[in-house]
Write a structure and sequence with these properties.
By secondary structure, the chain is of the alpha+beta class. It has one domain. Helix content is 18%, strand content 26%. The chain is built from five helices and 13 strands. The strands form three sheets. Strands 1-13-3-11-6-5 form a six-stranded antiparallel beta sheet. The longest helix has 15 residues. It is globular and about 65 Å long.
């Protein structure tokens, strides 16, 4: 005969919940946010578990650092204008306007309004993807036998659905993403060549918010990860307050296209 559950009655459930107070695990937000190595006031500190997701609103000027803790994270990223979420990351324009399909330090994440959402200030990884988008339930089911949101092999698109819902957004708002820490190169014959790793632990990307933003992250295996086993490791997220980009910023003036995008952004904030 099975034993009664420890939380089978309200009083036992209350006692169990209160006994968990102060429990800490690696994959959880730090509240209040603190990080000893951040050079500004920390506004977001969290470790995203394998198969997990996170979302947060951050202010213009905020620095957002992502760390691939163990060398096998895949940070799929959506970005929205927090004031008007109809404006969001446009991956096609991000690639087209900058004449470059490969993201790295000095590159921009552009909106569908021709404005800069985020700048990439530092990149020690060099393996990112602006071509393949997010995994979904069907793609995971084909590879792993299951892709459901609460199953053993969750997918990035459904994790995005949970993240955007926290900001009043829905399925129609889950737009094409970029994938950080996993690379896809385009061969001379047009073939997609995944560079999945695992890589050295501790690689990082530092981004700067150029508008007030909603940032949504999913940490699931890349859509064309060739490995038979579902594999991904934790992602560390730290955000701190920082200064708004000045007119003489080197990223702002790096190319005529970058300068124009920043002027569009500054015009928006001047209204």
């Amino acid at each position: 005969m099975s034993q009664p559950s420890q939380t089978g009655d309200p009083y036992a459930a209350q006692a169990h919940a209160r006994a968990m107070a102060g429990t800490q695990v690696e994959a959880m937000p730090v509240v209040p946010a603190t990080a000893a190595d951040a050079p500004g006031a920390v506004v977001w500190e969290e470790t995203v578990a394998p198969g997990g997701y996170a979302s947060h609103r951050i202010a213009r000027g905020t620095r957002l650092r992502l760390i691939d803790l163990h060398g096998d994270a895949c940070a799929s990223l959506l970005v929205f204008n927090a004031e008007n979420p109809l404006e969001r990351l446009n991956v096609a324009d991000t690639v087209k306007v900058q004449w470059n399909g490969y993201l790295g330090a000095g590159k921009l994440l552009l909106s569908d309004m021709g404005r800069v959402l985020m700048s990439i200030l530092e990149d020690t990884a060099g393996t990112h993807d602006a071509f393949c988008g997010a995994s979904n339930e069907a793609s995971n089911a084909r590879k792993y036998g299951d892709g459901k949101n609460y199953g053993p092999h969750p997918n990035a698109r459904d994790r995005f659905m949970l993240g955007v819902a926290k900001h009043g957004l829905g399925r129609k708002d889950v737009h094409p993403c970029v994938n950080l820490f996993k690379s896809v190169a385009i061969a001379a014959n047009g073939a997609t060549v995944p560079q999945i790793g695992p890589f050295e632990p501790g690689r990082h990307v530092l981004l700067r918010a150029e508008m007030d933003l909603i940032v949504v992250l999913a940490n699931c295996p890349h859509a064309i990860d060739p490995r038979a086993q579902w594999s991904v490791t934790p992602l560390r997220v730290t955000a701190w307050q920082g200064a708004v980009t000045p007119p003489d910023d080197p990223v702002r003036g790096a190319t005529p296209e970058a300068t124009r995008a920043f002027l569009n952004t500054e015009d928006y904030h001047a209204r």
